[in-house]
Amino acid sequence: MMIWPGKPYPLGATWDSAGVNFALFSENATAVELCLFDKDGKQTDVIQLKDRTNHVWHCYVPRARPGLLYGYRVHGPYEPLAGHRFNPAKLLLDPYAKAIHGDLKWNDALFGYTIGDEHNDLSHDDRDSAGFLPKCVVADDSFDWGGDRLLRTPWERTLIYELHVKGFTQRHPQVPENLRGTYAGLAHPAVIEYLQMLGITAVELLPVHQFVHDRHLLDRGLRNYWGYNSIGYFAPHSLYAASGTAGEQVTEFKQMVKALHAAGIEVILDVVYNHTGEGSELGPMLSFRGIDNQAYYRLSPEAPRYYMDFTGCGNTLNLTHPNVLQLLMDSLRFWVEQMHVDGFRFDLAATLARKLYEVDKLSAFFGILHQDPVLSQVKLIAEPWDVGPGGYQVGQFPVQWAEWNGIYRDTVRGFWKDDGGVASNLAYRLTGSSDLYEDGGRRPHASINFLTAHDGFTLMDLVSYTEKHNEANGDENRDGHDDNLSWNCGVEGPADDPGVLALRARQQRNFLATLLLSQGVPMLQAGDEISRTQQGNNNTYCQDNELSWLDWNLDEPKKQLLEFTRFVIRLFHEQPVLRRRKFFQGRKIRGSEVVDLAWFRTDREMSDEDWNDPLLACLGVRLAGDAIDEVDRRGNPIKGDTLMLLLNAHHEPHDFTLPAHREGVEWELLLDTRNPLGRPDTPARYKGGDAYPMESRSLVLLAQRTKQSLKETDGI
């Protein structure tokens, strides 16, 4: 076989219609072998990569085509005490592979050391791992996108829906069985119709980068369901493909994105660049560890045999190394430019900001990303914490970033639990968390508001359980976040008690309405709108079964909650004052007769002293629709209804005196969570000064109506 020198860039396997260029970075390797395989996994050729440019080993194979299977063997020192773990007996995945074919078959040969040896990872294992490792695939990048492009939905109009590719459709009755749990299943017309009907504008997909299932989980009959164990940052996970895994998964993913875009729905990926699926020094040798352990991973400066672990997963990617940082940036650009993804949510994003031990928001990663003409223009969302020192960084990320606002989650849960003493904190959360974001030059959309997510209780379980029940995970119920329980809002009582069921249902409506009516970007967990339960399990990372998959068999209460959610989402889209681009100022704007924001107790406007009342559990806020102080794309002032939001977390009902600041103004009831569908059965209006009877543990939304608007509403 004739082999040409090839080029060091782009990295990975690149087909140009005449052949394939292969390029692999390894700074400390002494030799690199490219191994080619047939469709049955039999090795057919071994090519020595003789050319090396700037630590990139490369060659060009004429007449090679998409579908070719390959892997690498990398030679170098095996000196774990110095941080080197080269072992050419181990076949390795290309970090830039765009598709991966086959399953990982766990075997002791996948480890660079001999398991059971008295020296553990200091020993050297010579068994060939090729028969147990999946193979990289040369992919065809061509695809007819037609007129598809990134949607660029404005942040203030964005409503995120977090879902799992498999779990969302695995039990969907309208999706053909062969498509359930796949990219094609998520693109099915019945699924897209549901997403449109619900009113969301973006899906946030749990990890779809190629990942591995932990050996210890498989040994217990479990799987890594969530997928936070990446091993291929360019490859869509092959087991989510219905069409095949020899490159077909790439096309199927693109078809899914194209279909969602055609429906006006953005695609955001949950990405895991903080660690890989190779684990600690006792983990397997699948890719990065064998290619250049010292370059790819953060090693302990005092003992480079061991890994710095800011993630709790055994290792941390070394983003202080320029070539590893390049890997991350190349991966992000690939998903935007080649796969048309609209944005990213970065798992444990504080890890990406670390230089040595400290979190530094001006680290190289952020500086390079903000200057990138492609990536600086997509949605960037941080999970703003990790498990290392000083890792809780809510409110500390730079401009251009939005954050999962864990403080919002905890405050709103505490309020509806009626913990007391949280009213002043709640005021910030309802109005965009200006205390966290305004001083840094950020806007309300920096706050990704959420109450539940994949990691924790579902909404139904949040209002039903006071303790977690993770026994099915096999860790004697010790796993999961115990601290979340302090904000758990379980309504105790017999499961068949009508009063208990009614209160749980109303609490679900309270949470959903609070989330969707708060300033900032709401994120809804898939299934919360239909009372999905995990039977009290708040850590279903390993439950790839009906405990995690959505149940689409909806009884009447679930249908009612779905209709309620649709109704509140419609209010979110219709009312500009709920989607402000700027923070409220609490004062008159441009000569408006009223301040843009005002707070009330049940009988009067709030004073400064009232905020210190630890028993305050019923309050209201008026949002002035004629004082938004913003313009649309054509430069016209944005105006909308003035709204009054009332919240009563107390266990007793309260009469709430509605404010009267103008003559001829009435308040029209839009929403009351005492009603299973939210909206009133008949039109209801109240004059300023009237008392609105609030049910215990309920939320109410009213709109201000003038005489003219009332005439228009009544058709007069």
Descriptive notes:
By secondary structure, the chain is α/β, with parallel strands linked by helices. It folds into 2 domains: 158-426 and 436-505 and 526-564, Alpha-Beta Barrel (TIM Barrel); 585-714, Immunoglobulin-like (Sandwich), CATH 2.60.40.1180. It is 20% helix and 19% strand. The protein has an 8-stranded parallel barrel. Strand 3 and strand 4 form a beta hairpin. The longest helix is centred in the C-terminal third of the chain and has 20 residues, at 498-517. The chain is elongated, with a radius of gyration of 28 Å. It starts with 11 loop residues before the first strand and ends with a helix. The model has no long low-confidence stretch (mean pLDDT 93).
Keywords:
TIM Barrel, six-stranded antiparallel β-sheet, single chain, 20% helix, 15 helices, alpha/beta, Immunoglobulin-like, 716 residues, eight-stranded parallel barrel
What is the topological layout?
Blueprint: E1 12-15, E2 19-25, E3 31-37, E4 43-48, E5 51-53, E6 56-62, E7 69-75, E8 78-79, E9 84-85, E10 100-101, E11 135-137, E12 160-163, H1 165-169, H2 183-186, H3 189-198, E13 202-205, E14 209-211, H4 215-219, E15 230-236, H5 248-262, E16 266-271, H6 288-296, H7 322-337, E17 343-346, H8 364-371, E18 379-382, E19 402-404, H9 406-416, H10 423-430, H11 434-437, E20 447-449, H12 459-462, H13 498-517, E21 521-525, H14 556-574, E22 597-600, E23 618-623, E24 643-648, E25 654-657, E26 666-672, E27 685-687, E28 691-694, E29 698-705, H15 707-714
Parallel strand pairs: 12-13, 12-21, 13-16, 16-17, 17-18, 18-19, 19-20, 20-21
Antiparallel strand pairs: 1-2, 2-6, 3-4, 3-7, 5-6, 7-11, 8-9, 10-11, 14-15, 22-23, 23-24, 24-29, 25-28, 26-27, 26-29
Helix pairs in contact: 9-10, 13-14
